[in-house]
Amino acid sequence: MNKIPRGTLQEQTFYEQVGGEETFRRLVHRFYQGVAEDPLLRPMYPEEDLGPAEERLALFLMQYWGGPRTYSDGRGHPRLRMRHAPFTVDRAAHDAWLKHMRDAVDSLGLAEEHETQLWNYLTYAAASMINTAD
Ligand code: HEM
């Protein structure tokens, strides 16, 4: 019999499975390189320096996928729809955001199953952030 000894099956979070902090940092860094060049998205970001926004998104995604809770330690409950209310997130902004995210996800070279899981979440989350009627 091929028994698995008790205590040797470790439940890993998605965060750990895809490579932890480094993977999320790479994802978000690549994403913001796209945003920096984007004529629609770049003006939406209030700060001159995109670094702090990059940090917030990286920490949020790390926390969401089971990593450290550093995002909420600093920012409290995410309340993402509320935090996006000052910005016009219409269909065009949504499409541009997802375009850069797609490019960033592709750059990671994840296993297909992980990639699908991450992408399904990002598309769902992006659709839920739209706050205009069109
Ligand atoms: C759909 C198109 C989206 C647009 C145009 C957009 C745009 C923005 C802008 C302009 C900011 C302010 C930058 C800053 O100061 O941090 C921001 C913040 C943020 N966004 Fe988005 N966003 C979108 C979707 C999303 C999605 C899908 C997520 C999550 C999966 C997300 C997560 C965040 C986070 C965590 C912050 C920082 C919140 C904070 O702590 O203040 N955004 N976004």
TrEMBL record:
Coiled coil: none annotated. Keywords: Heme, Iron, Metal-binding, Transport. Transmembrane segments: none annotated. InterPro entries: GlbO/GLB3-like, Globin-like_sf, Globin/Proto, Hemoglobin_trunc. GO terms for molecular function: heme binding; metal ion binding; oxygen binding; oxygen carrier activity. Belongs to the truncated hemoglobin family. Group II subfamily. PANTHER family: TWO-ON-TWO HEMOGLOBIN-3. This is Globin. It comes from Streptomyces chattanoogensis.
